[in-house]
């Protein structure tokens, strides 16, 4: 007779009596089937409704039944091939991880925060197209503040400032075997070329770099200009800017009768305001041996009044084009009643370097780079290395002095900060994951039972989710979804937190099922997936859809984050539903072999004391098995009969239950604990409770202590507590107050992300940014005009330029006017020429046809310009010299010859053109005027497609001030665009801060999409809009409360907190959907269902929350204050708020307003009646030979028709056993 007939016998081990874990009747699967019917088997619930025994949501049950069927089959298949599935799954994940090799972290602000497809992106693209990438110049800043007191206006402080700036100008770096000095990289003053070797060599050496500094008010400012090697001129002293008087130098060269265009140079110097340079400025140290005799305080040796000298600003050597307004160089200035500055809090100097494109073009044909592969990339590397060395050198000045604080900052400093901020802290992530591993191991550990302990699958689950995160990021890298700060700082913890939530749910359900003897061994994994898979699908698909919907945000950094989060959630879903079941299947094998948890090499023993009289069913058996040896007379033979009330509660139903130890079963089998009082059973169990030893009692006591768990807490304490009406009222009141605080806090949230927030404290960069923001808030911006008919719209351009007078934060000249634009400078130059021509014409020096030797160079130049027609067929008309004007009475430049005049101006008034910083594109053609030449044809420049008006912004201390200024400037630009002038603003404020203009709109849009996606997914899978609405309502409250928390703790809204607000929906789903699903799948009153839901879901939700918090807690050790405040504080608050809303508020709301159960019995509010089993399938007969006899197939059944005890089988070697199936139901 087959071994299934002998409950205590195993063919592989011989006759044994095994022990098993004692069962909690309340956790018995039969009880679950009756009270949590659609959770255990939606198909059974659906059948009950169709038979008229209950009513409910048939659509949801049909869909759920289909999902459970496929999940059950999937789990059984995975368990059968667990080794193969695990190997292939890990192999695929590992292959995806290879994609991480191609990962790059994006730190370019333009590519992160500029709205994709928005106007700013188009504007930046237009600028890049016209000027090229890396054009223009970069500013390196030096700020000085006093250590003691509040005044920096002293000669000692200025001399220290001189030391710091001078140190910056002495910085050199070696790269490509070339020594690069400051003079090689700086933005030099431009001067025309005269084809005179002596003159050109003098100009090349003497023309200085542009440095904006308060030192230009004093003679010491000349020490910054060099040159390093004094210029030697025959018959004269060696020249440096410390002793150079340009006006006097030109006169001395004339006296030496050195041939050069003296009149032209004198006119240029006069027009630029280059006269005596620094020779007539006061000396900070009048005792300096090099202090010139022409200095005002040379003779009296008095220290100058620094405050009065810097009042009104300072001028460089070209006073007309190099005047630095006091707001630009003096911070925190206070003036007396006479208008003089008597106190200031900071000094600022700005050192300009060429952009990489300009530097590349500057040295493209230079002998200096002949031996290297010169490229724009090489120029960029030289500039970056020099800037880092500059920062290091200037900061040493701070270390060497105890007088004032000196801080430096370069354009590369910001890039370095963003790169450092975006770097993944391997140590921090590793420690966070280790904490999760430890927690998972401890939370799933059974201290009193090494065999049934689950630490191993907890550890494996965390490692699997971590591998899934890495694999998902690898795939994102392959798909070229860029990594950024949100990827490196949020994703590792978010994805792991969301993944381990589902892992804990499956692990705890697996532990629960393992204590149920009626689930066959080979069905364990399938049954686990069947019960938890739908919940996992809902949470994962809700989150994935939510994040995919959030990707509609056009900000690239947020879009990349949303796509990465969605992909990682799908990877986690695949790993949890496909690979993790293979892991628990292997753990089942370990249990079967009675191996110790984690340390599988060691055998263990179970700690229970209940004797198992029948072995756990394995799987639906084959039709026949080999005959087994007969059992001894000591074997126990028993059969069960059960009588219970029928569905109508009146007529009895008798069910005869057979042993069926071979594993055949039906899902409606009823345990004695789950029967109603009218049910009886003849089942008996032998338990050796008699004569317990002291050791046994200790073990029993230990087991009782170990029952103290979250499930026990939910069942005995927490659930009953929330069922009380007074507690519900208290919860509603407290959460109403919490929501009110959240709403109030949202009104306190300000927009912005200060640079000081992302820089580690106690660094020079942090102190610089703090000081610069406090005293200066300095930015350089441009008003750009595009392809446009410039000659015919000059008046519109002047009005557009003057419109910026209304912008309060733009630094203006002393008279309140704006700095001259390129068009004004060009007009003024032409007006000077026109006046010179008029004088010469009146004096008879110039006529219609010619000029005489006594004509001035400017008069001759004007004559050449006046006769230009602008017509390529007839370019010269001498009659125009007397009838036309270079500039008419309305200030409009001659329209027909506009681009010819542009050529002449940019080439011959190069200092003014360079000072205008207009970056005219296409670059105007070159033509140098020489008075002795009679060539009248002047090349015409191409029509302009790009030009810009430069402005300086000051007092831009916070985001509100910056965004207000941005709006004001944008309004001006939009107004003139409507008038036909294609224009837009450009500069760092627009690149960094314009995102805040629409951030709240996009955040709101994203949250609506995310919540809508969650609603649709839950509604579709559960077919229950009511339930979906309650989840979305709680999620919306979570977002509001988290947003309010940010306002209460002064966390500003930027892209990163916006991402976390979107994340809050995803994490909130994990805290709410599990509770909701458990609630609607239970039977009973709302109170009872709430209690059951908490009993089953409190543990996995809490474990997921705690594990996520343990991962986040490692952020508290970051050196970035931003990470601590914006990530640790906000994510911790999110987890706390999510747990409170999901485990306190939601259960109370469900107990009051919750949706009805999916199945409601018609005659019993607490449970369904034990369902009638489905008829067994028709058996397929299989033929095999055993002692020349044929045995028919046996029908798997739990029903036996007889209660007559079978005879011992050792008296017969062959027999035919027939188990008919009978279900008797009276109506």
UniProtKB/TrEMBL annotation:
The keyword Cell membrane does not apply. The keyword Transmembrane applies. The chain crosses the membrane at residues 426-445, 457-483, 489-511, 532-555, 561-586, 725-744, 1001-1022, 1029-1049, 1055-1080, 1092-1114, 1126-1153. Coiled coil: none annotated. One of its GO terms (biological process) is negative regulation of smoothened signaling pathway. Residues 1-30, 613-635, 667-686, 1163-1182 are annotated as: Disordered. One of its GO terms (molecular function) is hedgehog family protein binding. It is found in: Membrane. It holds the Pfam family Sterol-sensing. Residues 668-682 have a biased composition (Low complexity). Keywords: Glycoprotein, Membrane, Receptor, Transmembrane, Transmembrane helix. Residues 618-632 have a biased composition (Pro residues). It is a multi-pass membrane protein. It comes from the Eukaryota. One of its GO terms (cellular component) is plasma membrane. Residues 425-586 form the SSD domain. Belongs to the patched family. This is SSD domain-containing protein. It comes from Owenia fusiformis.
């Amino acid at each position: 007779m087959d071994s299934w007939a002998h409950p205590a016998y195993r063919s592989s081990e011989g006759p044994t009596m095994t022990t098993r874990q004692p069962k909690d009747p309340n956790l018995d699967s039969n009880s679950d089937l009756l009270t949590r019917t659609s959770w255990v088997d939606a198909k059974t619930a659906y059948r009950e409704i169709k038979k008229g025994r209950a009513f409910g949501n048939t659509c949801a049950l049909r869909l759920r039944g289909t999902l459970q069927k496929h999940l059950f089959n999937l789990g059984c298949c995975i368990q059968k091939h667990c080794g193969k599935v695990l190997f292939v799954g890990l192999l695929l994940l590992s292959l995806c991880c290879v994609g991480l090799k191609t990962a790059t972290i994006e730190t370019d602000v333009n590519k992160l925060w500029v709205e994709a497809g928005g106007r700013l992106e188009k504007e930046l693209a237009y600028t890049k197209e016209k000027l090229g990438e890396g054009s223009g110049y970069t500013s390196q800043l030096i700020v000085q503040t006093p250590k003691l007191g509040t005044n920096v206006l002293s000669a000692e402080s200025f001399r220290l400032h001189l030391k710091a700036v001078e140190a910056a100008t002495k910085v050199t770096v070696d790269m490509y075997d070339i020594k690069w000095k400051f003079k090689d990289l700086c933005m030099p003053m431009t001067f025309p070329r005269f084809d005179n070797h002596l003159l050109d060599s003098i100009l090349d050496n003497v023309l200085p770099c542009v440095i904006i500094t308060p030192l230009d008010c004093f003679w010491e400012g000349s020490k910054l200009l060099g040159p390093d090697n004094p210029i030697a001129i025959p018959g004269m002293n060696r020249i440096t800017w410390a002793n150079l008087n340009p006006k006097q130098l030109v006169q001395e060269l004339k006296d030496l009768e050195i041939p050069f265009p003296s009149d032209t140079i004198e006119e240029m110097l006069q027009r630029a305001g280059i006269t005596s340079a620094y020779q007539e400025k006061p000396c900070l140290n009048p005792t300096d041996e090099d202090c010139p005799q022409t200095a005002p305080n040379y003779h009296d040796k008095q220290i100058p009044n620094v405050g009065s000298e810097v009042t009104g600003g300072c001028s460089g050597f070209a006073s007309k084009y190099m005047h630095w307004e006091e707001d630009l160089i003096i911070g925190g200035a206070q003036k007396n009643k006479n208008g003089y500055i008597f106190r200031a809090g900071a000094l600022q100097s700005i050192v300009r370097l060429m952009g990489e494109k300009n530097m590349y073009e500057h040295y493209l044909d230079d002998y200096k780079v002949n031996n290297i592969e010169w490229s724009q990339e090489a120029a960029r590397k030289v500039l970056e290395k020099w800037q880092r060395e500059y920062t290091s050198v200037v900061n040493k000045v701070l270390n060497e002095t105890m007088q004032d604080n000196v801080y430096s900052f370069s354009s590369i400093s910001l890039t370095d900060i963003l790169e450092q901020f975006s770097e993944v802290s391997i140590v921090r992530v590793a420690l966070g994951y280790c904490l999760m591993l430890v927690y998972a191991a401890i939370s799933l550990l059974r201290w009193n039972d090494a065999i049934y302990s689950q630490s191993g699958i907890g550890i494996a689950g965390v490692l699997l989710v971590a591998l899934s995160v890495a694999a998902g990021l690898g795939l994102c890298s392959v798909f070229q979804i860029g990594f950024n700060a949100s990827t490196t700082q949020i994703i590792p913890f978010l994805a792991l937190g969301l993944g381990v939530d589902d892992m804990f749910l499956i692990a705890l359900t697996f532990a629960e099922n393992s204590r149920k003897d009626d689930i066959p061994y080979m069905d364990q994994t399938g049954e686990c997936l069947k019960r938890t898979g739908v919940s996992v699908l809902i949470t994962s698909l809700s989150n994935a859809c939510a994040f995919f919907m959030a990707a509609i945000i056009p900000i690239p950094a947020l879009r990349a984050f949303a796509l990465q989060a969605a992909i990682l959630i799908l990877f986690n879903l695949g790993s949890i539903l496909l690979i993790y079941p293979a892991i628990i299947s292997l753990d089942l094998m370990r249990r079967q072999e009675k191996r110790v948890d984690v340390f599988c090499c060691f055998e263990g023993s179970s700690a229970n004391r209940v004797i198992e009289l029948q072995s756990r069913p394995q799987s639906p058996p084959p039709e026949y098995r080999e005959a087994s040896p007969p059992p001894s007379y000591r074997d126990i033979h028993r059969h069960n009969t059960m009588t219970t009330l029928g569905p109508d509660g009146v007529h009895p139903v008798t069910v005869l239950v057979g042993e069926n130890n071979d594993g055949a079963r039906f899902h409606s089998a009823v345990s004695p604990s789950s029967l109603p009082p009218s049910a009886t059973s003849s089942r008996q169990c032998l338990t050796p409770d008699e004569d317990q030893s002291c050791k046994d009692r200790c073990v029993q006591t230990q087991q009782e202590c170990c029952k103290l768990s979250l499930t026990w807490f939910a069942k005995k304490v927490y659930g009953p507590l929330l069922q009380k009406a007074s507690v519900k009222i208290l919860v509603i009141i407290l959460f109403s107050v919490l929501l009110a605080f959240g709403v109030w806090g949202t009104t306190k949230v300000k927009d912005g992300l200060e640079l000081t927030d992302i820089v580690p404290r106690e660094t020079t960069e942090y102190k610089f940014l703090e000081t610069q923001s406090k005293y200066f808030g300095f930015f350089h911006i441009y008003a750009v005009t595009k392809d446009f008919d410039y000659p015919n719209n000059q008046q519109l351009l002047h009005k557009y330029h003057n419109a910026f007078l209304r912008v309060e934060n733009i630094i203006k000249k002393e008279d309140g006017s704006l700095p001259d634009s390129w068009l004004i400078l060009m007009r003024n130059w032409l007006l000077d020429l026109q006046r010179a021509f008029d004088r010469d014409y009146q004096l008879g020096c110039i006529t219609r046809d010619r000029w005489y030797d006594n004509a001035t160079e400017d008069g001759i130049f004007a004559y050449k310009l006046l006769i230009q027609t602008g017509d390529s067929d007839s370019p010269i008309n001498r009659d125009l010299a007397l009838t036309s004007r270079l500039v008419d009475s309305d200030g409009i430049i001659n329209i027909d010859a506009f681009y010819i005049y542009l050529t002449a101006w940019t080439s011959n008034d190069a200092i003014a053109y360079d000072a205008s910083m207009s970056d005219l594109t296409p670059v105007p053609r070159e033509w140098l005027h020489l008075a002795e030449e009679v060539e009248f044809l002047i090349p015409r420049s191409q029509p302009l497609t790009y030009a810009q008006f430069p402005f300086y912004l000051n007092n831009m201390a916070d985001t509100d001030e910056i965004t207000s200024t941005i709006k004001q400037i944008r309004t001006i630009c939009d107004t003139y665009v409507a008038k036909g002038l294609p224009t837009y603003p450009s500069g760092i404020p627009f690149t960094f801060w314009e995102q805040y203009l629409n951030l709240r709109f996009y955040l709101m849009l994203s949250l609506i999409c995310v919540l809508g996606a969650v609603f649709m997914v839950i509604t579709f899978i559960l077919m229950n809009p009511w339930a979906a609405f309650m989840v979305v309502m709680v999620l919306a409250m979570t977002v509001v409360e988290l947003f309010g928390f940010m306002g209460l703790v002064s966390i500003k809204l930027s892209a990163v907190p916006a991402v976390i607000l979107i994340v809050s929906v995803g994490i909130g789903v994990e805290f709410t959907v599990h509770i909701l699903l458990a609630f609607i799948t239970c039977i009973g009153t709302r109170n009872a269902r709430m209690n059951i839901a908490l009993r089953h879901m409190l543990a996995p939700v809490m474990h997921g929350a705690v594990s996520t918090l343990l991962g986040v807690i490692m952020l508290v050790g970051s050196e970035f204050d931003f990470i601590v405040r914006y990530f640790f504080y906000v994510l911790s608050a999110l987890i706390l708020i999510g747990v409170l809303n999901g485990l306190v508020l939601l259960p109370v709301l469900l107990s009051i307003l919750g949706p009805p159960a999916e199945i409601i019995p018609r005659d019993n509010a607490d449970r369904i009646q034990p369902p009638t089993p489905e008829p067994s399938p028709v058996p397929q007969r299989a033929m095999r030979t055993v002692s020349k006899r044929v045995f028919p197939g046996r029908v798997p059944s739990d029903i036996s028709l007889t209660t007559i005890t079978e005879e011992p089988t050792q008296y017969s070697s062959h027999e035919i056993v027939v188990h008919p199936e009978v279900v008797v139901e009276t109506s």
